[in-house]
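Our consortium's second objective concerns turning raw sequence data into structural hypotheses that experimental partners can test. To show how far this objective has progressed, the report includes one record in full. It was chosen at random from the queue rather than selected for favorable results. The single chain below, 394 residues long, was entered without modification.
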Amino acid sequence: MKLRKLRSDMKLRGKRVIVRIDANVPIKNGRAVDGPHGRIARSAVHLDWLLQRGARVIVLTHLGRPNGRRSTSLSLKPVAKRLSGLLRFKVRTTRKVVGPEVTQAVGRLKDGELLLLENVRFDRRERENDPVFAEELAALGDLYVNDAFSVCHRAHASIDAITKFLPSYAGPLVIAEENGLSKLDQNVKRPFVLIMGGLKMETKLPVIQRFYNEVDHVLIAGALSTTFFSALGHEVGRSAHDDHLIDLATKELELMKEKLLLPGDVVVSKSLRKDARHHVLLREQVSKSDRIVDIGPRTVQHYISLIREAKTIVWNGPIGYCEVPAFCKATEAIARAIADRTGKATTIVGGGDTGPVLESLGIADKFTHLSTGGGAMLEFMAGKKLPGLEALKQ
């Protein structure tokens, strides 16, 4: 079933349009870290489209996990500043998510104006998918647009329950995500290389399992690899890993041993400081005091050799601990190799921490599809139904 979407000939002038975007980006020194291809920047294109058509736009989004409490550090002021720069006018905000003052602020909107409501997660009812809260949000608008694919796997009030009270549509980012990721359901060309980084094994394994028959190589990296190392009986020291999933990793290694590849060498450090010393070891040489922070150069070259032969490449999650530039070298090398393969291969990349790295390298637009989703991308690829998408189906 197709998603409902706004038609270009729909009359929007004077309509109060509630738009759910995902502006959950890193905040550093009071500024939203969001490049030309970032989540906020991509959302702003559609917001501007609505404003040009005379819509009165009310923007909903979240930042972080305030657990239903107001937090100054998670206020949307940096998001408002970023939107102001993109839309070229000062974006007004509210101090609350719902209530009389919000209703009044929406009532003052004129055609072609926009209002950003405060962090929807300041209200605990958002994450509870509370219908009363959803109805309060819906009362502010005439129609609703979900343009936040990266949270479509959440059954939250501003994603799911709100669609029960308003005519609801998928925004262009959501439609582009569904179209881009659906390419994997249509005659995937081989060799097919699947690259999995990051940490959470429980979200990555369903994807590996779904594509196991089609995939030629599953390249494991990031903290995900340390869980597999533990399953093999290797020392991982102080490295991040899913200790409670070692038994599962052991079973998967046996089932997937013909296709699953683990790093043979790794970069280790004693700390995660930016100036920390680091060196390369074979995976069997890691000591109890070491912390694995990246894959080693031999593994990088091996992985790149497979990428250069692939006709379908899917990558989710950083290869190393990219919060420290020195530990992001493999991620950068893999990213460039995949970008270079675009055109000769279908290249689909994503993961919440991956976008900023690609932006910094200037290659964010060099892929067949760059997903804004982390968990949503994984659940979609695993064949799960996403509440946010199900609510928008015709």
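The partners drew two points from this record. Residues 16-174 form a domain with the Rossmann fold fold (CATH 3.40.50.1260). The chain has a mean pLDDT of 93. Both points have been shared with the crystallography group to help prioritize constructs.
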